Amino acid sequence: MTQTLVEKEAAVEIEEAHTEGLPSGFGEGPMGRIAFWIAFCFSLFQLWTAAYGTMPSQVVRAMHVGFLLLLGFGLIGNLVAKTPAGRLWFWGLGLLGFSTGIYNWVFYEDLILRSGFLTPVDLVVGSIVIVLVFEGARRLMGLPLTIISGIFLAYCFFGQYFPDPFVHRGYDFEQIIEHFGFGTEGIYGTPIYVSAAYIFIFVVFASFLERGGMLGLFNDFALGLVGSWKGGPAQVCVMSSALMGTISGSGVANVVASGQFTIPLMKRFGFRSAFAGGVEATSSMGGQIMPPVMGAVAFIMAETLNVPYADIVKAALIPAILYFGVCFWMVYLEAGKAGLAGLAKADLPNPWAAVKEHWPLILPLAALVYLLFAGYTPIFAGTMGLALVVVLLLGMPLAARIGPLAFRIVFWLAIGFAASAFLKFGVNILVFIILGMIAACFFVRGGRDTLVICRDAMAEGAKNALPVGIACAIVGIVIGTLTLTGIASTFIGAIIRIGEEHLFLSLVLTMITCLILGMGIPTIPNYIITSSLAGPALLELGVPLIVSHMFVFYFGIMADLTPPVALACFAAAPMAKTSGLKISIEATKLATAGFVVPFMAVYAPALMLQDAGPIAEAWGYPVEVAYVFFKACFGIGLWGAAVVGYLFARLNLLERAVALVAGACMVLALPLTDEIGFALGFAFIAYHYVMVRRAKTAGPLAGAP
């Protein structure tokens, strides 16, 4: 089994998803190989700093940005530039960007000593890194994020000429360059620290698991488990995307990776193209809120709030269940409305056979989950999880050369015990094991192919981390502006004044801000900007800290699904062969939970396992959580029936309106709305069920002679 897996992965080239703004691959010829090895060295550097942590944080951040600029501009030169002069220009920019990281490393102590009194050379280096980060973001992330960040930077230069309440005292050129180009408040602020310390490791971790065959395991398991349900192919899409979300928190990457398989399958089965694309986009975006490995935003949130990552996962657990539960429910209703059954069980793989065949791939993920919830830091958990994946892959060709099954079991037990020793003896034991296995792989059949898989996963992981890293770098401009000028307090004060009378209006204003920002920027900068502005205001209005940040996070995700600009939907459009706008309309309908749950959690924080309410005082906290969860399921279920127009049979307009009102009552946190919602909802379901039964009974009688 293990030998077959290695040989298969070595023989079949895995189709690479496009990195945002860049085609697949690293380019052709010598420059392509140079870019590939730069990406490999980038991963190696990040893994070394994560494992040993001997370098100052400021140097790690600067080198992280330097590598991002070198690799980013190098790939632009290889894959986008049309002329030799253009390629030379971009490679020159990349080398210049990398030199800024080297400068921070070499003169680290000197820069600290002369803080506030930078030399002309320092100012030139700081100016260069700011300009290059803007240009890199423009090339890789598009104009909207670059323009927004540029407006914030311009405000630092010219805000002293603004009228009240936006005026600030004014800052000279040197102060602005030092703030943004050095230190830990601008480009090298918290977002780039999280990118260097956490996000990069988990992106490479996902790259190794994908190349090890995890995507195939997820697809086979989902096909076998839910493929026979009503609307089987779409249910498979939802489940495979949910599973994919456990190792990859990038919604767009999930769309590209799994959509190539699921969207054509849904279309062949009879689903409309727009609906098929909407299912893929909606379920893939949910990967960012799917524990245990959520999207990059979750790590930034944990660092910003200074709480354990496990607390973020705990808050996201029930909302994630609701989100994907609604996806399953909406697919079920749509399939029923269209008269689509499930796939034939005889044509489906056995899900447990797939798990039995590829179960070793689950072990590193299980170890990662254990470490995260055992109180270890995400950087330690991610590094150890990645190391265990490497041990697993390297061990496969070695185990395949061992004849008797009993000896192979002993081999794996020995490797497992040796690898687990890192908990007591530190990372060195894992490094020695990996180096020894690498050496052994040179001398066994299939071993060198496995080394190629690992090498390629390292390089591809670095490339996949480019968009996230560049976004974190440029959004540091926004955060730096807020800390330098204090403009955030003006916005926070406005929200608080509104919320003192109407909390709901403050929430709606925050939601609209997230959705508008999301039209042009990805989830990460959207969350960072909006949470910096609205998070403290919502906290002042009594919204629990994690709930307020999760509120912003959810609508940052929804922005990638809502018209007119829906990045995830447009990523699904080529595979669905229909317009991204049509897909986004369907995705908005499917993502009901994403719009409803954040509002419900504000008024009932138990939905995110946060503060207890009056029900907990009377009946206990578990009862309150169960009640709020049931209420959310019931309300969202009714909304789904109203949106699709189907429950046990097609609904007329009056029935849809009643279901919609009943569902809305379950969301509202007003006196008696729960009682009204339950009464109206159960009455609607009973009435509809009776009418459907009568119609079915009357049908045969009406046709009798």
Structure, explained:
The chain contains 34 helices and no strands. The chain has 705 residues and is mainly alpha-helical. It is globular. Residues 1-19 and 701-705 have low confidence and may be disordered.
Low-confidence segments, ≥5 residues, pLDDT <50? 1-19, 701-705
The number of strands is 0
Q: What's the Cα radius of gyration?
A: 27 Å
Tally of helical runs: 34
| Beta-strand proportion | under 5%
Shape: globular
Name the helicity range.
over 70%
- Major sheet details: none
Instruction: Report, as a whole number of angstroms, the end-to-end distance.
Output: 63 Å
Structural class by SSE content: mainly alpha
Q: Return the average pLDDT rounded to an integer.
A: 82
Looking at this protein, list some descriptive labels.
disordered N terminus, mainly alpha, 705 residues, 34 helices, disordered C terminus
Present the secondary structure layout.
Layout: H1 2-11, H2 29-52, H3 57-79, H4 84-106, H5 108-113, H6 120-141, H7 143-158, H8 173-181, H9 190-211, H10 214-226, H11 232-244, H12 251-269, H13 273-285, H14 296-305, H15 309-338, H16 351-358, H17 362-373, H18 378-400, H19 405-420, H20 422-425, H21 428-441, H22 447-464, H23 466-485, H24 488-501, H25 503-518, H26 523-540, H27 545-558, H28 567-576, H29 580-590, H30 592-603, H31 614-619, H32 621-644, H33 653-667, H34 673-702
